[in-house]
Design brief:
By secondary structure, the protein is α/β, with parallel strands linked by helices. It has ten helices and six strands; from the N terminus they run ααβαααβααβαββαβα.
């Protein structure tokens, strides 16, 4: 009966709403996921290799990683599915702020295979929002992602294990050190003596992940690894890519 109602609701949604891609606006013909067209999916750029074996940041061979040298030894590895370019950013904006929570199913597809690289059998733990933001949005995007990854992999999800104790100001314009200061004491966790897999939408500087992982380790977790859908490009890497396109007349 429940499956019948879900199918009926999806059918009604497709009838009421135009079947157009949230990324580019073009018609979508795929029956399985009508929110993102195949072209936009193909354009998602995987995180280039080689990456730091611990934090997953793209790096040049022989160059020391700029992100994770001071992390707790029990944090990592971390992996991200795609780079946060303009296309991925537009879809994440729809996902986080405009109620398109079903995008989680599409985002989870490239995330799920990365779990094999984490070498962790623990449950999935979504990074929580503060209660005020959860009420405003109506849901937590990381919890939606964790649930979608769990459906694909069969790995259990423990959404209440990690708690956000306070609101934190926007971090968009903050550097790594300021982000860590902004997140100090932001999370608390219930005691759990096992390895855990954090899930979030975007990896930027790693500050949110480190703060959340620290709370879990303090509560007794033996190890914390993580997976995200997108990873922000280092500023210089993004600038170099745009300059290369400009030189080519793109």
């Amino acid at each position: 009966m429940l499956a019948h109602w879900k199918h009926s609701l999806k059918t009604m949604e497709r009838w009421l709403l135009p079947a157009s891609c949230l990324g580019c606006g073009s018609p979508v013909t795929s029956a399985g996921e009508p929110l993102v067209c195949d072209v936009c999916r193909i354009r998602w750029r995987p995180v280039p290799t080689p990456v730091c074996q611990r934090c997953g940041e793209p790096r040049r061979l022989g160059v020391t990683c700029r992100i994770c040298p001071e992390w707790d030894p029990s944090i990592g590895p971390v992996r991200s599915a795609v780079l946060l370019d303009d296309g991925a950013r537009r879809l994440l904006h729809q996902f986080k702020y405009h109620g398109w929570r079903r995008l989680a199913d599409g985002f989870a597809q490239p995330m799920a295979p990365l779990l094999r690289q984490l070498d962790c059998s623990g449950p999935l733990v979504p990074i929580p929002l503060a209660p005020g933001r959860t009420r405003t949005r109506g849901y937590n995007q990381a919890a939606e992602l964790a649930a979608a990854v769990g459906r694909i992999t069969g790995i259990p999800v423990v959404p209440g294990l990690l708690v956000r104790r306070r609101e934190t100001g926007t971090q968009t314009r903050l550097g790594a050190a300021d982000r860590l200061a902004n997140l100090a004491g932001a999370f608390s966790a219930r005691a759990v003596p096992e390895a855990l897999i954090l899930v979030d939408d975007v990896f930027t500087t790693g500050a949110t992940l480190v703060s959340a992982a620290g709370a879990l380790l303090d509560a007794g977790a033996s190890r914390v690894v993580a997976v995200t859908f997108a990873r922000a490009e280092a500023p210089l890497a993004g600038l170099a890519r745009h300059l290369t396109r400009f030189d080519r007349g793109a």
